[in-house]
Design a protein that fits this description.
TIM Barrel, two-stranded antiparallel ribbon, 12 helices
């Protein structure tokens, strides 16, 4: 979403979430392209929509309005057809005491406010995404459940280790521990998104490790390859044609919900949609034989 907003004119460092109020037509145009590409689920433009994050841009007082508007924009993007609006809660962007300046109560209040605004706005689910530690994840899941979210998704950001042997979050959490923690804390879906080196192959490995640790459905949003700096712009190096090659293996591994994260575009999702439809069609044909 951040890349798409910048392509639409958002200046580096400015508040993209505020566009839900100031430039809703631009946000709608982005979301509509994903709906038209075949998305069944679309995340709201609220990754940095907590009061703590918005306060950095002087928009904390509009937290409720920004999050509610984001839900309405996605609903409009579906154009009347069935589709799931997933309220997006990203990291609060700091560290809690004793390592940082924010108290647990401050983070809890910010997440509870955001989650309630998203649910009140009509979000079908809440995702607590790009998490690296369990403390913040637990607060987010609890906030979503308190708000009455019909579905709560916990999503971790993993990094491949330097020797390439495995992957874990920045705070050292592996998929098995994360999956069990999310299930114990009441999440309905376990997920992964973003992270360094988390391509389609690594995402498949994460799905298999999740499924060994929990019976909950698994959602996967790998990156579109690796970021490279070209002409002072960050560009991800996997095309839709390259990325979609790994889709069947992800589905075979047991992924229930499949999307893409950093660097992905509507064209990536369109390729996924076509490949998923073909995969499901063949599977149903084989079952009926």
């Amino acid at each position: 979403m951040g890349t798409q907003l910048m392509l639409a004119g958002l200046e580096q460092g400015n508040c993209g979430e505020a566009w839900n109020l100031t430039h809703p037509e631009r946000v709608l145009a982005i979301q509509r392209r994903y709906a038209d590409a075949g998305s069944d689920c679309i995340l709201t433009n609220t990754f940095g929509g907590s009061r703590i994050m918005l306060n950095r841009h002087g928009n904390a007082g509009q937290a409720v309005e920004i999050n509610r508007a984001a839900v309405e924009i996605v609903r409009q993007a579906f154009g009347g057809r069935d589709g799931y609006v997933i309220g997006d809660i990203g990291p609060f962007g700091g560290l809690m005491e004793p390592y940082g300046d924010f108290t647990e109560d401050q983070v809890r209040e910010a997440f509870e406010e955001q989650a309630q605004a998203l649910v009140d706005g009509g979000a079908d689910a809440i995702i607590i995404e790009t998490q690296t530690g369990l403390e913040e994840l637990a607060i987010g899941i609890a906030a979503a459940k308190k708000a009455g979210a019909a579905c709560v998704i916990g999503s971790m950001a993993y990094d491949v280790t330097l020797d390439g042997s495995t992957f874990r979050t920045m705070m050292g959490i592996d998929p098995e521990r994360a999956a069990q923690f999310m299930e114990d804390n009441g999440a309905d879906i376990v997920a992964l998104n973003c992270g360094t080196g988390m391509d389609m192959v690594r995402a498949r490995q994460a799905v298999l490790r999740y499924r060994e640790s929990t019976s909950l459905p698994v959602m996967v949003q790998p990156n579109a390859g690796q970021p490279k700096l070209i002409n002072m712009q960050v560009v991800y190096d996997e095309t839709p044609e390259q990325m979609v090659v790994g889709l069947a293996a992800l589905l075979d591994a047991g992924a229930s919900i499949l999307g893409a994260c950093c660097g992905s575009t509507p064209d990536h999702i369109r390729a996924f949609r076509g490949a998923m439809d073909e995969y499901l069609s063949k599977r149903y044909e084989n079952q009926s034989v």
